[in-house]
Amino acid sequence: MTDPLAHFRRRRPARAAAVREHLAAYGPAIPADYLEFLETSNGGEGPVGEFGYVQLYPVEELARHTAGYEVESYAPGHLLFGSSGGGSLYAFDTLEPTPRLIELPLPIELEYSTQTGTSLAEFFEIQAREQ
User: Fold this and answer.
1) What residue stretches are annotated with the Knr4/Smi1-like domain (predicted)?
2) Are 84 and 53 in contact (CB under 8 A)?
3) Is the C-alpha dihedral spanning 3, 5, 100, 102 positive or negative?
4) What are phi and psi of 114, to 5 degrees?
5) How many CB atoms neighbour CB 65 within 10 A?
6) Domains defined for the chain, CATH in brackets
7) Tens digit of pLDDT per residue, the chain (131 long)?
């Protein structure tokens, strides 16, 4: 099986202090494998599998993107972590006690959101399959 992230351009690892500063308040809503991913790549961008394309924001920019898209007005309790580079945003549902990653359409309409996994690995698998 081919690595779905073979052509994904990773950034430098996140600083541990930045991860604590920007994500500590969200506790169990953030998947453990996302935190592990940040240890090797503070976001990134590129193809995922044959069909997907993902932009993952650096941890220091999550709050800025969330505020910039006015997520609290349209999807309260969600923290953006990336986008499709087109018409979708990716967010953690921080109201759930366990990780839940969702895709929000643009313009943001929560009722049209879809779950895209409970872990970063599952999220990447789903993105790699989507056409």
Assistant:
1) 14-124
2) yes
3) negative
4) -135, 145
5) 19
6) 9-129 (3.40.1580.10)
7) 578 899 999 999 999 999 999 999 998 999 999 999 999 999 999 999 988 999 999 999 999 999 999 999 999 999 999 999 999 999 999 998 899 999 999 999 999 999 999 999 999 999 998 75
